[in-house]
Amino acid sequence: MVRRGLVLMALLGTSVLAGCEHQMTLEEARAACTKQGGFLVVIHTAKVTLSGVGPEIDSPGDCISPGKFDNASKPAAAPAAPAPAKPAPAN
Fold first, then answer.
1. Residue 1 lies in a domain
2. CA-CA 20 to 30 A from 38: which of 8, 11, 13, 56?
3. pLDDT tens column, 45-54
């Protein structure tokens, strides 16, 4: 019983600490993404209240690799031409 309590406390402690991981700043994320050769998506948010709009807050989003755009630049394959119609028999 005591052992089960210790295991439960250890699991609870690790789950609490997992939520406290370091979140990258915008500058750190931009540097890491640029180092990988990607483009950083920046998310702009602002708190809206009854008294007005608050200051704009920039936070890092996803790092998009240039390879994701390669598929968009290739033209789509042309559809196959339809088979020629058979002439109707003359009556």
1. no
2. 56
3. 999 999 999 9
